[in-house]
Design a protein that fits this description.
Order of helices and strands: EEHHHEEEHEHEE
Number of strands: 8
Helix content: 25-40%
Mean pLDDT: 94
Distance between the termini: 23 Å
Largest sheet: 5 strands, antiparallel
Radius of gyration: 15 Å
Strand content: 25-35%
Length: 177
């Protein structure tokens, strides 16, 4: 089982116990406003999402990790690598992404998890390059992208929802961690 430990977090595969806390995160409209069409997800929608993430692990050898707080065992959110099929112009690149419950914002957890994911991409999966795709104006995610050392590459438009996106990238052969 793939597991990464950072000073404050455990990034690991999903378990049945993760469904309810992830559904709580996905039910928060403030969290979800930057994701997809901005709609919240219920328990069934969250279960389908986790199932897709686990299938990606099986198919690609990477996916979104469940992110657990080391100190308390609470599920704080998710972070990992994904194939950005929703944006065909970005393919064949692999994207890094993250989503955390609002009570975990502003504490550096997203940056800590994303740094660990970049190291995983380079050292364990041998990827040369990773991108991040964010909604234009999502300052918190832009801050994480900057902390990762990713460079602005271009703007894009979400093909289904029409909102503006930014694409940042990092060449992992130059990644310093």
């Amino acid at each position: 089982m793939t597991e990464i430990r950072t000073p404050r977090l455990i990034l690991r595969r999903w378990t049945d116990d993760d469904l309810a806390p992830m559904a709580d995160i996905n039910a928060d409209p403030v969290v979800m406003r930057w994701i997809g069409d901005g709609s919240v997800l219920d328990l069934d929608g969250t279960a389908e999402e986790i199932e897709r993430w686990e299938e990606e692990w099986d198919d690609e050898g990477f996916g979104l990790f469940a992110v657990e707080l080391l100190a308390s065992g609470e599920l704080a959110g998710c972070a990992g690598l994904t194939v950005p099929e929703f944006l065909p112009e970005a393919l064949p690149d692999i994207a890094i992404s993250w989503r955390f419950g609002r009570q975990y914002w502003g504490q550096g957890y997203a940056s800590e998890a994303a740094q660990a994911v970049l190291e995983f991409a380079l050292q364990d999966r041998g990827l040369d390059r990773v991108i991040a795709i964010n909604r234009l104006g999502h300052e918190a995610s832009e801050n994480v992208v900057r902390k990762l050392g990713m460079a602005f590459e271009r703007e894009a438009t979400h093909p289904e929802y029409g909102h503006a996106l930014t694409v940042h990238s990092i060449d992992l052969t130059e990644y310093q961690g």
